[in-house]
Specification:
- This protein is of the alpha/beta class.
- It folds into 2 domains: 137 residues, P-loop containing nucleotide triphosphate hydrolases (Rossmann fold); 39 residues, no CATH class.
- The chain is 28% helix and 22% strand.
- The protein is built from 5 helices and 11 strands.
- The strands form 3 sheets. Strands 5-2-6-7-1-8 form a 6-stranded parallel beta sheet, sandwiched between helices. It has a 3-stranded antiparallel beta sheet with strand order 10-9-11. A two-stranded antiparallel ribbon has the order 3-4.
- The protein is elongated.
- The chain starts with a strand and ends in a 14-residue tail after the last helix.
Length: 205
């Protein structure tokens, strides 16, 4: 029986690299994969998934208005599909997570989702919330804070290196905008004064 998987982590844990390796493993064995990526993630060339270590693959962009079950059915009609992989799965809608469950249950296609668990305020993304609730398998991809502890949270930084505590949940960015940290340093970062540049001391400024 095909399953719905959610591989989750903080920033810079290698989610896209793991996705690309999984897709490669299937294709190396002569199997077909379909990679989907949110259209709103415009950091790289449209229609691609790219990792920080330079690996890339072609991908099909989608929006929250798209029916992913219907999209996969169209793909299956043209050739067999052995695995569906979703990059930046935190941007999925509740309905799309349900549709991915249908892909696994009704079409028999394994679905591998990769994404962040929480945003810069420590709140669950919509897609992550429902994947945590409905996925058959939950797998944490680990990375570390600057202090050496496991990083489970993320801080958003403004252009001056200050911790951003307010703002829209979705803001596309990389290392210049986000810092993966442990829970302790997330709390310390959020406790800094709004006019204080982020440092990684043990006490807030």
């Amino acid at each position: 029986m095909a399953k719905l998987y959610f591989y989750y982590s903080s920033m810079n844990a290698g989610k896209s690299t793991t996705l690309l390796q999984s897709s490669y493993n299937y294709r190396e064995r002569g199997m077909n994969t379909l990679v989907l990526t949110p259209e709103l993630d415009n950091r790289f060339q449209s229609g691609t998934v790219s990792s920080r270590i330079g690996l890339t693959t072609e991908a099909t962009p989608f929006t929250t208005a798209d029916n992913l079950l219907a999209l996969v059915k169209e793909s299956v009609a043209t050739q067999p599909l052995h695995c569906l992989l979703i990059d930046e799965a935190q941007f999925l809608s509740r309905e799309q997570v349900q549709q991915l469950g249908d892909v696994a249950d009704d079409l028999g296609v394994p679905v591998l989702c990769y994404g962040l668990r929480t945003d810069f305020q420590g709140q669950l993304f919509e897609g992550s919330q429902h994947l945590l609730a409905w996925a058959d398998n939950l797998v944490e991809i680990k990375t570390i804070c600057h202090c050496g502890s496991k990083a489970t949270m993320v801080l958003r930084l403004d252009g001056n290196g200050r911790v951003a505590k307010q703002g829209a949940q979705i803001k596309i960015g990389g290392n210049e905008s986000y810092q993966a940290v442990c829970r302790k340093h997330f709390k310390l970062g959020m406790a800094t004064r709004d006019d204080t540049q982020l440092t990684f001391d043990d006490e807030p400024k």
